[in-house]
Amino acid sequence: MDDDRLKRLERRVRALEDEAEVRRIVAAYGPLVDAGDADGTAALWETDGVYDVDELVMRGQDEVRAMVRSRPHRAFIEGGCAHVVGPAHVRLHGDEAVAVCHSLMVVHRDGGFVVRRATANLWHLRRGADGWRVAARTSRVLDGRQEAPDLLRRGVRGEA
Amino acid sequence: MDDDRLKRLERRVRALEDEAEVRRIVAAYGPLVDAGDADGTAALWETDGVYDVDELVMRGQDEVRAMVRSRPHRAFIEGGCAHVVGPAHVRLHGDEAVAVCHSLMVVHRDGGFVVRRATANLWHLRRGADGWRVAARTSRVLDGRQEAPDLLRRGVRGEA
Amino acid sequence: MDDDRLKRLERRVRALEDEAEVRRIVAAYGPLVDAGDADGTAALWETDGVYDVDELVMRGQDEVRAMVRSRPHRAFIEGGCAHVVGPAHVRLHGDEAVAVCHSLMVVHRDGGFVVRRATANLWHLRRGADGWRVAARTSRVLDGRQEAPDLLRRGVRGEA
Questions:
Q1: pLDDT tens column, B69-101
Q2: B-chain residues within 8 Å CB-CB of A2?
Q3: Is the pLDDT of residue A1 over 70?
Q4: List of chain B residues with pLDDT < 70
Q5: Is the ipTM of this complex over 0.85?
Q6: Residue of C6, C16, C113 to mutate when probing chain B, most B C-beta within 10 A
Q7: What gap in Å lies between CA B125 and CA A146, rounded to an integer?
Q8: Taking each helix axis from N to C terminus, what angle separates C147-156 and A2-34, rounded to the nearest 10 degrees?
Q9: For B23, which residue in chain C has the nearest alpha carbon?
């Protein structure tokens, strides 16, 4: 019986650790991308993970890396830029997880700061040989297009 | 002795799970309300839970549901809108919890985004037959009115 | 063997509790400072903890307390002000922890709200006789100065 109790506890603790790790990945994106850390940002994704933003679909770590190294992204950092992501709502399903959150892209402009974009984000994460990674992140700007509220609805329900 | 250690561990793990669930509820509000999911939003509250905002007091799930379905709220979604809530500071007291956080309501306007409202939020949650639910959420805009800082102070102290 | 399993579980649960406590401290700053709670804000730091902001270095709880009680800070509260901090990326190293996050200072102005500052924050926390406290928090505005992205990069790597 004690062995059963231990096993149950081990499972519950592992689920809590998994959720903490998923949060860590989501919370790492903003600091990494605003630091211009292309390798660190790309490493959040699986080798062939997808990052699908309104105007751009990045397939694989190399394309994420290229975005962080791109001239437009570097210009944002040099001008002053904050990608504020989360807090995330997380649902675990064994070795997979769905997270959903808002993000705000805040940029420095004319001595002040403006919100350039408010975005809905749906994350699909998976546990693999190297731990948890992003299989797919889909982001849609909350400017009235129906896709953005749709992402939020699916995310809270844990549908990737 | 091992039985005592197991019991203590079970209690601690349950407290961590409770806190994670409280966070999940707080983190669900923004995505649900921006998705226009009236039933999902209402279900965060107890049947007779209260959502007390500056200009409106909603008593019970039906009134929360009606707010999400209201024409003004639908107009916000159609125009583009992000209710960014948290992160929350959480204190557990057995089957009750107090959470406190800021929220930002960001709306799409003239091709950009503006912060329409920055708000102080005090949440009182309870564990019932169906798990954790919101018994009361009180929100006051941070425009200088004394009630808003008062909510923040009470919240951090864990006073519902 | 069961004793080993119990010990391992106890260590893992303690790490989860430590991370929750670190999050609680980071999440407490905004509500406390916007409530004008000078003692509560100061108590987040170690007695001789450091809070290093662009224009001001506060050494010790007394200087943090003085900042919260200062006329400029009180004027922000009276006008309407939200220090939205986090969510934080947290790394534990035994009795020390490194957290990194963005913060937004949103102020009420002309009937609306504006983002006055978007900031990179690197936190170094330590467990002492009275539990977890802030040993040092360094904050740099994200206006293009190189120090701010540098803080973010170090923070995600867990370098205090």
A1: 999 999 999 999 999 998 999 999 999 999 999
A2: 2-3, 6
A3: no
A4: 1
A5: yes
A6: C113
A7: 32
A8: 160
A9: C20
